[in-house]
Amino acid sequence: MVGNMGSLLSLFPSGLRALSAALLACACGAAAALDVLVLDRPESRADHRRDFASLVLRTVMERTVPEFGRYRIEQAAVYMNRRRLFEALKEGKFVNVAAYPASQEWMDALRSVQVPIDMGLQSWRLLLIDGDKQVQFRTVQSLEQLQRWSAGTGGGGITLKALRENGLPVVTGGSYPGLFQMLMAGRFDYFPRGLNEIFSEYDHFRASYPALAVENSLLLHQQVVSLFFVSPRAQHLQRRLTLGMEAMVRDGTLERLVLSYFKADLQRAALCGRTRLELASAPLAPAMYARKELWIDPADPRHGVCPAPPRDKH
User: Fold this and answer.
1) Same domain, 103 and 245
2) Both 47 and 187 in a single domain?
């Protein structure tokens, strides 16, 4: 069709021919437009922490095709640690979108899509432990009692900050797989993990560490929010993802996706009978935290995770 447009345009007066040619060029450019999203690469084959975020990303991009057009999702050529990924996102080189737990530094320097990818499920944290210590952990009823034990975490994340701010002893590790090795070697006593990640990690690593266990009595709540972060050079991607995520919140698609994807994990976690311990911290984005529709609370009957308490007949 484009090849015949020259003869067709010759039928119009010269002014109209110029306008028509300009409109044709715009139309061809729009048809050829393609949003290319380059995501960060997992640290290893055992690292499934971004699997759900990748599913959400594909879902929101498909949903926004009518308004924004075609897209392609790629993966960075190499793994980048948190610091290197942050710098790459700022520069818009090698990667332009990442799904990551938010920090003040990331919120200030990058463009964020302020809808929690997993509706805050990562905020609910269980503990990986050596199974021989299960009995001791059952005696813990407060953060003060938990201070008898040391936690393990990475060296630069928000969990490290929250644990320290709440007076909990922490041992840091240099790599994701290394933290599991350190736990089972007794370098620290527990490894707090998000509800969205702990069971896939347990299933993977227990072959190497048969004594690995999921502690069965405690539930830590920490304000962890995983967001899509976009390079400042890709403002249009932030707008596309924001509009799509907000639409998925309004019609319940995001909540259904979260509860369906993590259904087995929620069942295995048995959250309703656990002792809940709050890790206090100041919210990064108060307006986002104030929006109840963005968050899943297992104690809220509307989500169907824990049954509603019986009504007082008196």
Assistant:
1) yes
2) no
Angle between helix 235-250 and 253-261 (nearest 10) = 80
Listed residue (60, 65, 72, 62) closest to 36, CA to CA: 72
The answer on 201 and 55 residing in a single domain is no
Give the whole-angstrom CA distance, residue 306 versus residue 273: 9
DSSP string, 78-110: S---HHHHHHHHHHT-S-SEEEEE--HHHHHHS
CA distance 93 to 231: 9
Phi/psi at 101 (nearest 5 deg)? -60, 135
Q: What token pair was written down for 49? A: 């922490």
| pLDDT tens across the length of the chain (314 residues) | 434 444 434 444 554 444 444 444 444 444 447 999 999 888 877 777 788 999 999 999 999 999 999 999 999 999 998 899 999 999 998 999 999 989 899 999 999 999 999 999 989 999 999 999 999 999 999 999 999 999 999 876 788 888 999 999 999 998 889 999 999 999 999 999 999 889 999 999 999 999 999 999 999 998 889 999 999 999 999 999 999 999 999 999 999 999 999 999 999 999 988 999 999 887 788 999 999 999 998 888 888 888 765 565 54
| Cα–Cα distance, 72 to 237 (Å, whole number) | 12
CA distances from 173 to 128, 151, 187, 202 (A): 15, 11, 10, 18
Its domain, for residue 126, covers 122-222
